[in-house]
Amino acid sequence: MTPLGKRPTAAAIARRVGAGEITARRPVEEALERASAERLNAFLSLRGERALEEAELVDRRVAAGERLPLAGVPVAVKDNIAVAGVVTTCGSRLLEPYVSPFDATAIARLRDAGAVVIGKTNLDEFAMGSSTENSAFGPTLNPHDPGRVAGGSSGGSAAAVAAGLVPVGLGSETGGSVRQPAAFCGAVGVKPTYGRVSRYGLVAFGSSLDQIGTVATTVEDAARILETIAGSDPRDATTLPGRPGRLADGLDEADPASRIGWPGEFFGEGLDPDIRAACERARDRLAAAGAEIVELSLPHAPYGIAVYYVVAIAEASSNLARYDGVRYGYRAAGADELHAMYERTRAAFGAELKRRIMLGTYVLSAGYYEAFYGKGTVVRARIRGDFETAWERVDAILTPTTPTPAFPVGEKAEDPLAMYLNDVYTVSANLAGIPAVTVPFGRVRPTSERPALPIGVQLMGPARAERRLFELARFLEREAAA
Amino acid sequence: MSETKTIGGMREVLERWEPVIGLEVHVQLATASKIFCGCATRYGAPPNSQVCPVCLGYPGTLPVLNARAVELAVVAALALGCEVQPTSVFARKHYFYPDLPKGYQISQYDRPLATAGRLEIVLDDGGRKAIGITRLHLEEDAGKSLHGPDGTRVDFNRCGTPLIEIVSEPDLASPREAYLYLSTLKRNLQYLDVSDCNMEEGSLRCDANVSVRPRGTGELGTKTEVKNVNSFRYVEDALTFEILRQAEALGAGRPVVHETLLWDSVRGEARPMRSKEMSHDYRYFPEPDLEPLAVPATMVEEIRARLPETPAARAERLVKEYGLPEYDAGVLTSTRGMADYFEAVAECLGDPKTFGKVAANWVMGDVLKLANERKLEVTVGGPDGPSPLHPADVAAHIKAVAEGKISRNVAKDLIIEIPSGHMRYGEHAPRVLIQAMESLAHKIEERELVQVSDEAALEAEIEAVLAVHPDEVAAYRGGKEGLIGFFVGQVMRRTKGKANPQLVNEILRRRL
Questions:
Q1: Helix (H) or strand (E) segment spanning residue A476
Q2: Distance from B103 to chain A by nearest Cα, in Å?
Q3: Among residues A314, B26, B328, B387, which is most buried (max CB within 10 A)?
Q4: How many helices (H) and strands (E) does chain A have?
Q5: Complete DSSP assignment for B3-17
Q6: Residue A118: partners with Cβ closer than 8 Å, 6 or more residues away
Q7: A91 contact B CB<8A
Q8: How far is CA B179 from CA A52, B182, B208, B241, in A?
Q9: By a Cβ cutoff of 8 Å, what residues of chain B touch chain A?
């Protein structure tokens, strides 16, 4: 496997296909070949012939003079995003036989722009997990060390991109599920503002938190894909009005001089010293380029994980109610009565799903609602308030993406709490609905325990400030390469 | 349960016990498409032919609110005097059932669309009573489970149909009041075109909360919920059954158990539902896929300004403007179509005080009868124009009678000859009236139907009648004055209905 950026970027492919230098069929065919040979368990299904047919259609459109910003760009799509005519398993036995009859809005927009979905990638079951170990189809392995996890829940897309199988991928976030695996695998990961990308066709987990995000080898590619899929959608009442404007052009020309927040709460106990050092280096580079570093406090951030796991599981218990074996997907055989059918069918959920459904049902129950979901909503508003206050003083906030680099497969599988703490730095952005980007910034020092695993640093910004985050991320990307 | 036993038993029971009843009414809104997707809401389509990934709850789909449903709900809320909330919130109500595709119903819970309304009902003794409306909220309907010997099949056509739920205060003190409330509600909502309120098609469904307490006490007794009271015929039966049952239990010292009962109209009894069908912990929480519903004050005022008169207000106006008896005004406002029709006829005629009553008689009589015979609605704005015929035609006949050109009986016979037309009403009302009058005049002339008002001619006819009925003449003169009608009838028959009946009457009295 050849990790990282050795292959042409999406921007390069689109340029060459658009200019008629190569056919769209070629990059798609190559990506399919690499993906069918991969050993990381990144892909759950490949579209083969259909992807090639679509590539040929792109070639005809290019020949007809259409200008396609993503002409011929092969894309990996997390298997909880609907692509018409393809199984959408969500990494679950319950949807193993389910073929979506429609395209997600994001998929339709990618196709309009000339991109070709080559396959669906692995994930924790229904996106619930931080290592892709909760997939019913086995874990996805980290391209930098196959003994380690790719992170999750968008581990398949992150690994596919980092391993150079495809230049870009779609993932989804509820609490760090794009950024954490991107950081583990050494890729750029984006969680847009809530409402920036239509959720139509994204299988719901925690609806008030869910957002489709992008993974790429470069900041520019991640921004380009987001630019394509973003914008209001009449099928999703929670999308923001309008479109985000240009996100990918001219990132190199931007001045990194800005006010950068450095929140003390994100640099406490449990943070790997190598990751802390990487953040400090990023901070110092920004300062050297003229940025003002502002130490600040996000006092409610430490409650983020607790609040996240109340809100997300409550909504999850509701969103998963529809998988009852009645209309689509898996139905357990042999039940002679309705409730037996429900019980046997839903017994096919994995252990983590059952845990979250039960906890989520509990926190919404009469008598407990106020103490849990009600209180969670209140604290969530405080977390959002902390950020609102911060934006009066800073343009972006710099933090680690994860407390540790990628951990060994199986290490946390039996310890849900340790697993949940992986998202400690990422969930705040989901709870506040703000955009965040992780960008690879150096590696840990190799020891006998671990190789030189990639480190991600995170930039968070005010709602709709994706453009500014990409400019700063691009600056760090350049500095990391230097 | 026999009716006499019910009502007899009821009277006794009501002397000791006071029923307290509140109704929860679900009304299907008259939108063309579903509340959260574009599927049609047409009734009677083949099973699962009006469904899409959204209303089937396929993975990844999201609800998008139908603005027309909100508008109709606001119309209903305003007509019921409710306060429309500037912000209301959709919530998910969870329970597992095969006809509920998402495992939850999108409804409204702690922040409904509208609150604090009232509906006035007219009691049988003519008194009026205001029934409080606690709340009115929007929600989606579930599908329909069809249980058969070979298993259960589900039709999702109805799934996602927009509903409003209207919850009354426990202000209803008898099954009769509950019936009056429900029928007034139905009439008003139909009148506003909010719903067709067709109970057979499930457009209007009713659950009742019932308790009884000893007369004169203020505390509420334990209530039960009676579900499936889905026909006007059963409302009184079901409530009577439950009141008697509770009164009997309490009278015998047994407590009433708080439970949900299902009305079985075939066996005429309400049975407790099995625990699996009973109320669950619905685990309500705000629907994250929909923004809170904002209904700006400007929209409320716009809708209020366009709000048609309520039937009650219109009846009052008809009494005042046209000098109609209250009874006539009540009949005419029983449907909006009939009231509109009456006013259209009256408008053609002008002079409301003179023609009001006669126009009312025509509409409630000839026009309604004709509509029933032709299986049409009385309306000015049907799909094929006014029905059963153009109001101008009715006005033309009324005018012809008033001007003495034809008799009332001839007019009656002539009007049923007019086919149900395809004319639009309103655009050229005066021209239509002139046309109608011309065509009628032509017909009268052609068939020689002109009313005979010539005294000499009538006297000759009358002489002929009297000559062949000497016995009746003697009887009349002996004091049987009721026979005057017989003589008039004979004269009308001889003249084929063309004689002016008033004149005949006058001459007869003089002659006899």
A1: helix A466-481
A2: 5
A3: A314
A4: 15, 13
A5: HHHHHHHHHHHHHHE
A6: A28, A31, A32, A35, A46, A47, A51, A74, A75, A76, A166
A7: no
A8: 67, 5, 11, 14
A9: 53, 56-65, 92, 94, 96, 98, 101-104, 152, 154, 276, 281, 283-285, 288-291
- Judge whether B52 and B37 are in contact, CB under 8 Å: yes
Residues found in chain B: 512
What gap in Å lies between CA B184 and CA B210, rounded to an integer? 20
From the CA of B215, how many Å to the nearest CA of chain A? 35
User: Residue B313 burial (CB < 10 Å; 0-12/13-18/19+)?
Assistant: exposed
Stated pTM of the model: 0.84
Report the C-alpha dihedral over residues A106, A107, A110, A111, rounded to 10 degrees. -150
User: Of the ranges A373-387, B265-279, B368-382, which is most confident?
Assistant: A373-387
Kind and range of the H or E element at B114? strand B114-122
* H/E run at residue B120: strand B114-122
**Residue A336, exposed/middle/buried by CB under 10 A (0-12, 13-18, 19+)?**
exposed
Q: What is the pLDDT of residues A262-290, one digit of tens each?
A: 999 999 888 999 999 999 999 999 999 99
| Distance in angstroms (rounded) separating the CA atoms of residues B315 and B300 | 25
In this prediction the ipTM stands at: 0.93
Q: Kindly determine whether residue B62 and residue A237, on different chains, have CB atoms separated by under 8 Å.
A: yes
Q: Which amino acid is at A405?
A: P
What are the CA-CA distances from residue B305 to residues B185, B192, B298, B308, B426 (Å)? 21, 13, 11, 8, 22
Calculate ∠ Cα B277-B281-B284, nearest 5°: 120
φ/ψ (deg, to 5) at B19: -75, 145
Q: Which of A202, A208, A365 sits opposite B281 (nearest CB)?
A: A365
**Mean pLDDT for the stretch of residues B42-61:** 93
Strand, coil or helix: B385: strand
Instruction: Name the residue of chain B whose CA is nearest to A321's CA.
Output: B103
Test the B interface: residue of A96, A208, A322 with most B CBs within 10 Å: A322
CB atoms within 10 A of CB A297: 13
Token duo for residue A18: 């658009």
Which residue shows structure tokens 């299902």? B262
Check B103 against A338: CB less than 8 A apart: no
The mean per-residue pLDDT over the stretch A17-23 comes to 94
Among the residues of A347-465, which ranges form H helices?
A: 351-363, 375-390, 416-420, 427-432
The pair phi, psi for residue A461, each rounded to 5°, is -140, 175
**DSSP β-ladder status, A259-263 and A188-191:** unpaired
Q: Could you write out the DSSP letters of every residue in A230-241?
A: BS-BTTBTTSPS
**B346 exposure class (CB count in 10 Å sphere: 0-12, 13-18, 19+):** buried
Residue in chain A nearest B293 by alpha carbon = A237
Closest to A117 (Cα-Cα) out of A59, A157, A77 = A77
